[in-house]
Amino acid sequence: MRRLVVLRELVAQGYAIGQVARLNDRQLRSLTERQLDAGRVSALPSKSRGDARPRFEQIQIVLQSVLRFDYAAADRELGRLATVLSARDVIHRVALPLMRAVGEQWHAGKMSIAQEHLASALVRNLLGGLIRLYSPEQPPVRLMFTTPAGEEHEFGILAAAMLAAGGGLGVIYLGPNLPANEIIVAARRAEPDVLVLGIAGSDAMPKLLAEVREVAHKLPTRVELWLGGKEAARAQAEAGGRPAVLLPNFAALELQLRRLGATL
Predict the structure, then answer these.
(1) Which of 41, 124, 139, 159 is 20 to 30 A from 177 via CA?
(2) How far apart are CA 182 and CA 139, in angstroms?
(3) Would you put residue 69 in left (φ > 0), alpha (ψ -120 to 50) or beta?
(4) Of 73, 101, 134, the domain-final residue
(5) pTM to 2 decimal places
């Protein structure tokens, strides 16, 4: 836990997460001590240094590593990109383009299901780690992220949670495919300011929409309900008069996050 606190403090001061995360405990202590003695040190480049633009070739490096089932090489490249990017740019310049390319490769028959799962695991691990490091200890606002039972697509809510954490908001991440009654229990106990449901769509849409109706009906009135994903508009129509913010894309999400005070 202490290590996570130190890493978060260094990231907040401008250091790149991919670089400081690779340091051992002794190196982290040394860096922290030097910073206390001399202010900002130059032993590591900060996010503002170097070329922060992930080029097409860099995404291809990750894709080729995935196709070879070389998890370590792909993970290193993603970590390297994270060293020069803000939380927001990790989403827009790395995660989204990568998952889009993976989808195209899979639909074209150039990538197996196992390789697609490998790529998803890489992105999930990257964003999950960054969420933990970026999340503030005393956030002004907290958002809970999940998908209803029957909705297994996780990437949308994971990326949304990363944007919220990177903007300085609190994140309660529950993962996908959660029954309505469990979502309600979690919301009542954790008391978030916002519940974000991802609705990408599935073969069991009637059941999925029924889950949304139950959540909308039983969610405490003080908790804002946000609905994102390809089928968010259909889900909004099932809210039964419960006010719900529609998030058709990440631009709409970022607008709402800024309304809550996120710095994106």
Answers:
(1) 139
(2) 24
(3) left
(4) 134
(5) 0.78
